[in-house]
Specification:
Structural class: alpha+beta
Helix content: 55-70%
Oligomer: single chain
Mean pLDDT: 91
Distance between the termini: 42 Å
Largest sheet: 4 strands, antiparallel
Strand content: 5-15%
Low-confidence stretches: none
Strand order of the largest sheet: 1-2-3-4
């Protein structure tokens, strides 16, 4: 029997499938929590523009009382309220009832606070908490809250996500006689079988999207190799102002990652499908516990 026929008919007995299963298993366990964080944050960030528009900061007004404090006095008040920060800017408004915006810097991080220009009282952040959480979530998704280093780690994570989708596609195939039952969820089975069918069916129906997110995630982190290939395949013509096909393709690679190309239907679809990798991690972790950790624990107790 040829390798291909064995894979089509009885893939479970194939040594390559068993090897890829181990790669898939341990890769998933290793980066599972990372994938959960990036997937959930990505689903929320599909609506990043809507969230920022909803929580756009509004002007803060104060009661006009007496003479306004000078810029130096406001700087001193802000420095006293935040002694570990450095005041880099004080913005006073033409409207006498508007609060003053003070920009503070600490360890390279900037935040803007509002102060009463008459009493010097700290009025809190200029940006509402939901707005700041959206910005924080974007930094978490793009850079893992760790700048360029976190972004590079993100690129490696995207590579591992791509590897998981490829190995998952290969080991998903149950054989020509059983493939139909691997594309649906068996709600009548015991919990182990139910867990497996959720993992298998979710992986099958979302495979193309997970693979796409992996590839586009690699591009968004490491665009230089993609650009080099594009320049090799379609050299840049300085005499033409027409966009190259490769430039259009790379534009869509980035655009499709966030699902913002067809209005609310694509956003809703991307939001829901973005939760598939966490489902895959939870069900995969349960299978790992049941197949690996549980037998080891039972044997150690004997």
């Amino acid at each position: 029997m040829t390798l291909w026929r064995q894979y089509v008919s009885h893939p479970q007995a194939l040594w390559l499938r068993r090897a890829l299963f181990q790669v898939h298993l341990w890769s998933g366990i290793t980066v599972g929590l990372y994938i959960v964080v990036v997937s959930v944050s990505g689903s929320v960030l599909v609506y990043r523009s809507e969230l920022r528009q909803t929580f756009e900061p509004e002007p803060r007004f104060v009661v006009v009382s007496g003479a306004r404090m000078s810029t130096d006095a406001l700087t001193e008040a802000a420095q006293s309220a935040y002694p570990e920060h450095t005041v880099s800017r004080v913005v006073e408004r033409d409207n006498p009832s508007r609060a003053v915006t003070v920009t503070l810097v600490r360890d390279g991080k900037i935040q803007q606070m509002l102060f009463n220009p008459y009493s010097g009282a700290d009025l809190g952040h200029r940006l509402p908490l939901p707005y700041r959480l959206t910005t924080w979530l974007l930094d978490l998704h793009d850079n893992l809250l760790y700048g360029e280093t976190g972004r590079a780690v993100n690129g490696v994570g995207a590579m591992l996500l791509t590897l998981l989708s490829i190995t998952g596609a290969f080991i998903w195939w149950p054989g020509i006689q059983n493939w139909r039952r691997s594309v649906s969820i068996d709600l009548t089975s015991n919990w182990r079988r139910l867990n497996w069918t959720v993992h298998s069916a979710t992986g099958f129906w979302t495979l193309a999207f997970v693979f796409m997110w992996g590839i586009t995630g690699i591009y968004l982190t490491f665009p230089q190799p993609f650009q080099a290939v594009a320049d090799f395949v379609e050299p840049f013509d300085e005499t033409s102002f027409e966009p190259r096909v490769s430039d259009t393709v790379m534009y869509w690679i980035a655009y499709v990652h966030f699902g913002r190309f067809a209005g609310w239907p694509s956003k809703m679809l991307w939001f829901v499908l973005g939760l598939a990798p966490p489902v895959m991690f939870v069900t995969g972790a349960l299978m790992w516990w049941n197949r690996v950790l549980r037998p080891q624990n039972q044997s150690s107790q004997k």
